[in-house]
Write a structure and sequence with these properties.
Radius of gyration: 14 Å
Number of helices: 0
Shape: globular
Distance between the termini: 40 Å
Structural class: mainly beta
Order of helices and strands: EEEEEEEEEEE
Number of strands: 11
Strand content: over 45%
Helix content: under 10%
Length: about 120
Amino acid sequence: QVALAESGGGLVQAGGSLRLSCAVSGGGFTIYAMGWFRQAPGKEREFVGDISWSSGSTRYADSVMGRFTISRDANKNTVYLQMNSLKPEDTAVYCCASRPRSFADYRFWGQGTQVTVSS
């Protein structure tokens, strides 16, 4: 049974920082990529960024480019999302997702962690 567990969400003032973590356990599959997504109230889920598990290369949405950084610790099967210069519009539930090597999309999802940025 694959499980993804996010942690690190909370309440922060605008301009502040938070670091989210996502640990992957179970499944016995090879990770191809890990992604972060977010969903604000009344809005559709939005891609934040992702990281190639083998190379460490990253991609980001334009809305977070230069403020957010994704990294991974392959030994711990953990991916991180460092969020700096947070804005009220970053308020959302943030979820991590795992894309196995044999799939073309993200197949396993975490429950999400709330990030609230106050103005």
